TrEMBL record, chains A, B:
Protein name: Metalloregulator ArsR/SmtB family transcription factor
Domain HTH arsR-type per the UniProt entry, residue ranges: 8-106
Signal sequence, renumbered to the chain: none
Keyword Transcription regulation appears in the UniProt entry: yes
SUPFAM superfamilies linked: Winged helix' DNA-binding domain
Keywords: DNA-binding, Transcription, Transcription regulation
Origin species: Christiangramia oceanisediminis
Xref: NCBIfam families: HTH_metalloreg (NF033788)
Gene Ontology molecular function terms on file: DNA binding; DNA-binding transcription factor activity
Organism placement in taxonomy: Bacteria, Pseudomonadati, Bacteroidota, Flavobacteriia, Flavobacteriales
Gene3D superfamilies: Winged helix-like DNA-binding domain superfamily/Winged helix DNA-binding domain
Matching PANTHER family: REGULATORY PROTEIN ARSR (PTHR33154:SF15), TRANSCRIPTIONAL REGULATOR, ARSR FAMILY (PTHR33154)
DNA sequence: AACTAACATCGTAATAATACGATATAACGA
DNA sequence: TCGTTATATCGTATTATTACGATGTTAGTT
């Protein structure tokens, strides 16, 4: 793409955008939802669950991990992933910090 | 990109991903934050505020509008944008529906 | 050691997103 | 009407993302 002009924006704006990008694919949402239910899973679970190739799942997992949403622990031969609890809550707070800033703007909410 | 296999995922997963994509650029976060403060703005406000070209701002505004996050009203010669209140709250609920599903997973939060 | 199972990484083709100049379009005022 | 102001849209070069086969890597098994 054209290069995003990161320097024009605040640290918070860039951070929120990076986090949102991690959520911005249905496969990654599906992975997160699976983990919210199952607490833990390995790559091959998700290959069966989602029907994407192993390499593709691995790539999505890495992106979620890079964003800090997941952590991975070696479990014998396989890699066990789970949601990173502290970061998850921080992300929640960051988004809600934005969501909650909306203000009532008129009797019928006619802002503009 | 390789084509995203939308049909593999649920409606909610695809919707969340589309919304997250709308948030996944610092310029769009900046636009939303500006609107949360100012309630209303026009294209040229943002050109001055953000330092991106007029065409670029217009493109970002369209994406935010397509995602349902903004609404626009004609105001004489210019276009007045504001946050779409109902959709904004629905988006908030959708994300929190996900954020809040995290469960305590152990004495030290060692999930995996 | 040889084999297997489970992943990660590489390479790459296909496709999407970003930025912006150039060019429409539309409303208002003189 | 003509010019001005404010946006939208088009075209396009550049860069990023997605998916997956092929190949590497590592831990356990026989």
């Amino acid at each position: 793409m054209g290069v995003t002009k990161t320097d024009l924006f605040t640290k918070e704006q860039n951070e929120l955008a990076i986090l949102a990008k991690a959520f911005a694919h249905p496969a990654r949402i599906a992975i997160l939802q699976h983990l919210l239910k199952a607490n833990t899973c390995i790559n091959s679970d998700l290959v069966n669950e989602l029907g994407l190739a192993q390499a593709t799942i691995s790539q999505h997992l890495r992106e979620l991990k890079n964003a800090g949403l997941l952590q991975g622990n070696i479990e014998g031969v396989s890699m066990s992933y789970c949601i990173h609890p502290e970061n998850w809550n921080r992300v929640k707070d960051l988004f809600n910090g934005m969501f909650d800033k909306i203000q009532h703007c008129g009797p019928k909410d006619e802002c503009c």
